[in-house]
């Protein structure tokens, strides 16, 4: 993988020509104009019979979207994946279904005033693009262009496009990644996390349906259990793929499948679209790319993605000439739980916390701002690694977890996933059953009736006796004293009151302000939080048509990429950090762009 550039670039948008906004031009680049622009760049082929008009490698969300677009344009597509049919839709199926919209109907319903300018300010403050932004060969040059196009998309046709495909969203908008405390710094200034009604499966469903219709019409052919090991090149162009046929597998969705080879294959097409995902299941690969700015790589991590998210196609595409940029940028969560009922190896579940739990390092020292629940994921990750330990603690109450804890994953939210309104409404008067099951069966929970009992349980769980009762009690009592007045110097308590000013948090995500040691909020609960691997933010560098670029910054004829393998666009549309709700959306947008452009290039 390529080392990150040290070049810096301005975060100020270049001047725009009179009458045409740069953002509008970039958004248009994701559609027909971009497709027409690359049509003339299609390579000439004559190196043998073609198996299809296009080959898509990876049947996750980005792959489904790209395939849908190719088929809609009348192209014949081969959709390949090393996994069996049960895993169609990939990692997106397991997601909470959060999507980033700007100035949406749901936001306006909740009284949230959002705008494209505010969202762009937040994106730039979070991404901090600084690697050759103004240099066409810079690692952040295309990433920033993709970011600008994506924010336009999120503020424009994204919602109407998806609604037209049948998707709906929970009316209460979530407020994720609340930031580091400055208007122009990291984080969302307003709530933008829109939960899809039906969670991850409902995000995948409309695209899977369209692709299956195209299969029935003879436009798309599935090739499950086809593992691509090489991109075929001829005259500098990618002209197909070679690989191994794996034995049939009855593995259930998310379960590891065998890697026993029973044959090989070679397929040819004018274009190949790589949509194979990131590296999150390969902890060794994560550690090799771990940035020094986040401290020492953790010795122990749990895994937030199925085992097939192995990063193989990154190296394979690089060997075919593709350029990998920003490999040191990644997004891992700090609030991971070991799953008591795992689906894949090392399966972890993330707590999506509200703002009220107190957060301590492994030694019992309270974190300060911005290391507060739901505020700044990567800064907190750095603080945890700096502590010399791979875990941290929430100390909280039953009253808080009942109102504020949500778990990532479609399977952990049966009310939303099954679209069960009565079950959803039951959250008003009871703790959601998945939370209670983790509290009962999960190894990371300690429940106690007193603080001394809680500390004893925390030390017993880890076996290292790092938590001192007197020290923990002093910090909790100091925080509790700040509750007596409607004003405070405690930034976390300020944040709780700020959250309660937003109706969405008052209704569903923030408990009323109370003392941690209030007997009426009991029992006391401590939760050991593990580092959970999840997203690759860097990847294959692509231009605004999804074409993969080489080391000289030139498009490789016939080669496109979308989704996480391309850093969700441009080799790193998020820069250094995410505003959340932007990963699924990045797959949707980049898959659409690459599919449309590849279709035009083969017309």
From TrEMBL:
<keyword id="KW-0560">Oxidoreductase</keyword>
<dbReference type="GO" id="GO:0033765">
    <property type="term" value="F:steroid dehydrogenase activity, acting on the CH-CH group of donors"/>
</dbReference>
<dbReference type="InterPro" id="IPR014614">
    <property type="entry name" value="KsdD_DH"/>
</dbReference>
<protein>
    <submittedName>
        <fullName>FAD-binding dehydrogenase</fullName>
    </submittedName>
</protein>
<keyword id="KW-0285">Flavoprotein</keyword>
<feature type="domain" description="FAD-dependent oxidoreductase 2 FAD-binding">
    <location>
        <begin position="53"/>
        <end position="584"/>
    </location>
</feature>
<dbReference type="InterPro" id="IPR006311">
    <property type="entry name" value="TAT_signal"/>
</dbReference>
<feature type="region of interest" description="Disordered">
    <location>
        <begin position="1"/>
        <end position="21"/>
    </location>
</feature>
<dbReference type="Pfam" id="PF00890">
    <property type="entry name" value="FAD_binding_2"/>
</dbReference>
<dbReference type="InterPro" id="IPR036188">
    <property type="entry name" value="FAD/NAD-bd_sf"/>
</dbReference>
<dbReference type="InterPro" id="IPR003953">
    <property type="entry name" value="FAD-dep_OxRdtase_2_FAD-bd"/>
</dbReference>
<feature type="compositionally biased region" description="Polar residues">
    <location>
        <begin position="1"/>
        <end position="19"/>
    </location>
</feature>
<dbReference type="InterPro" id="IPR027477">
    <property type="entry name" value="Succ_DH/fumarate_Rdtase_cat_sf"/>
</dbReference>
């Amino acid at each position: 993988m390529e080392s990150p550039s040290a070049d810096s670039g301005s975060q100020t948008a270049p001047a725009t020509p009179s009458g045409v906004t740069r953002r509008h031009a970039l958004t248009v680049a994701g559609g027909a104009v971009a497709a027409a622009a690359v049509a003339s760049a299609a390579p000439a082929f004559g190196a043998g019979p073609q198996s299809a008009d296009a080959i898509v490698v990876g049947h996750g969300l980005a792959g489904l979207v790209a395939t849908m677009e190719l088929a809609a344009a009348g192209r014949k597509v081969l959709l390949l994946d090393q996994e069996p049919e049960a895993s169609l839709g990939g990692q997106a199926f397991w997601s909470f279904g959060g999507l980033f919209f700007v100035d949406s109907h749901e936001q306006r319903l909740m009284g949230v005033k959002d705008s494209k300018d505010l969202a762009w300010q937040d994106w730039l403050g979070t991404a901090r693009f600084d690697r050759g932004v103004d240099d066409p060969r810079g690692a952040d040059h295309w990433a920033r262009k993709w970011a600008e196009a994506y924010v336009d998309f999120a503020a424009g046709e994204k919602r109407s496009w998806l609604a037209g495909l049948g998707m709906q969203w929970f009316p209460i908008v979530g407020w994720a990644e609340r930031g580091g405390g400055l208007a122009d710094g990291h984080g969302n200034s307003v709530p933008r996390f829109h939960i899809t009604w039906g969670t991850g499966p409902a995000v995948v469903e409309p695209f899977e349906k369209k692709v299956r219709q195209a299969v029935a019409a003879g436009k798309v052919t599935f090739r499950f259990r086809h593992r691509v090991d090489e991109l075929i090149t001829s005259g500098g162009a990618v002209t197909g793929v070679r690989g191994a046929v794996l034995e049939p597998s009855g593995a259930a969705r998310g379960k590891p499948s065998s890697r026993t080879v029973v044959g090989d294959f070679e397929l040819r097409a004018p274009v190949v679209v790589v949509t194979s995902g990131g590296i999150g299941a390969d902890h060794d690969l994560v550690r090799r790319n771990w940035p020094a700015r986040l401290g020492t790589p953790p010795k122990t991590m749990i895994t937030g993605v199925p085992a097939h998210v192995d990063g193989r196609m990154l190296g394979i595409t690089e060997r075919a000439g593709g350029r990998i940029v920003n490999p040191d940028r990644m997004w891992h969560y700090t609030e991971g739980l070991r799953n008591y009922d795992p689906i894949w190896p090392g399966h972890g579940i993330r707590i999506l916390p509200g703002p009220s739990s107190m957060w301590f390092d492994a030694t019992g020292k309270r974190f300060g701002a911005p290391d507060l629940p739901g505020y700044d994921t990567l800064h907190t990750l750095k603080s945890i690694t700096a502590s010399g330990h791979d875990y941290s603690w929430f100390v909280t109450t039953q009253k808080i977890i009942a109102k504020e804890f949500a778990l990532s994953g479609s399977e952990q939210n049966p009310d939303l996933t099954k679209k069960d309104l009565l079950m959803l409404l039951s959250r008003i008067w009871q703790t959601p059953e998945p939370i209670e099951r983790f509290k009962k069966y999960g190894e990371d929970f300690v429940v106690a009736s007193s603080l001394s009992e809680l500390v004893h349980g925390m030390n017993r769980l880890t076996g290292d006796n790092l938590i001192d009762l007197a020290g923990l009690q002093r910090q909790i009592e100091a925080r509790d004293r700040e509750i007596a007045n409607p004003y405070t110097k405690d930034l976390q308590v300020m944040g709780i009151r700020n959250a309660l000013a937003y109706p969405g948090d008052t209704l569903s995500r923030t408990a009323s302000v109370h003392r941690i040691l209030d007997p009426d909020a009991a029992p006391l609960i401590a939760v050991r939080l593990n580092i959970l691997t999840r997203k690759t933010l860097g990847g294959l560098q692509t231009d605004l048509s999804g074409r993969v670029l080489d080391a000289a910054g030139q498009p490789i004829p016939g080669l496109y990429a979308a989704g996480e393998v391309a850093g969700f666009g441009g080799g790193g549309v998020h820069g250094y950090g995410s505003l959340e709700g932007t990963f699924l959306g990045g797959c949707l947008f980049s898959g659409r762009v690459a599919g449309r452009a590849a279709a035009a290039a083969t017309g």
